[in-house]
C-alpha cells in the first residue's frame, strides 16, 4: 500500500467514526477517544444540539472547536500522524 492510499484509508476511518457520532441517538453529546499504539492522543466531543466539535489534544494540552466535520478529521489525522512520528 502506498502512502497516498494509506493516508486516504486513515482519513476515511476517521470520517466514519465522526459520522457515527452525528448519527448516534443515545446521547446529545458524543465523545470518542483517538489513540496511537494504545495511547490516547486526543479526545473529540460532538454536541448534536449546537453542531460544534471540540478536539482536546493531550500531548500539547490544547483544545480547538470546529463546525466542519472535514476540518475535525484533518486535525485528528494531523495529531495522530505527529504522535506516531514521536513514538
Label this structure with key terms:
87 residues, alpha+beta, Signal recognition particle alu RNA binding heterodimer, srp9/1, 32% strand, DUF1797 family protein, YkuJ-like, YkuJ-like_sf
Q: Would you summarize the structure shown here?
A:
InterPro entries: YkuJ-like, YkuJ-like_sf. The protein is an alpha+beta fold and 87 residues long. The chain is built from two helices and four strands; from the N terminus they run αββββα.
Low-confidence stretches: none
Total discrete domains: 1
Strand order, largest beta sheet: 1-2-3-4
Number of helices: 2
Mean pLDDT: 92
Note the gap between the termini: 22 Å
Fraction of residues in H or I helices: 40-55%
Walk me through the structure:
It comes from Leuconostoc falkenbergense. This is DUF1797 family protein. InterPro entries: YkuJ-like, YkuJ-like_sf. This protein is of the alpha+beta class and 87 residues long. It has helices at 3-23, 69-86, and strands spanning 29-36, 39-47, 52-57, 62-66. It is built from two helices and four strands. It has a four-stranded antiparallel beta sheet with strand order 1-2-3-4, covered by helices on one side. A hairpin with a 4-residue loop joins strand 3 (52-57) and strand 4. Helix 1 (3-23) packs across helix 2. The longest helix has 21 residues, at 3-23. The mean pLDDT is 92.
Amino acid at each position: 500500500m502506498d502512502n497516498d492510499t494509506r493516508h486516504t484509508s486513515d482519513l476515511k476511518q476517521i470520517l466514519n467514526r465522526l459520522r457515527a457520532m452525528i448519527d448516534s441517538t443515545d446521547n446529545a453529546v458524543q465523545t470518542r477517544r483517538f489513540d496511537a499504539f494504545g495511547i490516547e492522543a486526543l479526545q473529540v466531543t460532538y454536541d448534536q444540539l449546537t453542531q460544534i466539535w471540540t478536539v482536546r489534544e493531550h500531548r500539547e494540552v490544547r483544545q480547538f472547536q470546529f463546525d466542519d466535520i472535514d476540518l475535525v478529521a484533518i486535525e485528528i489525522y494531523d495529531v495522530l500522524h505527529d504522535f506516531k512520528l514521536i513514538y
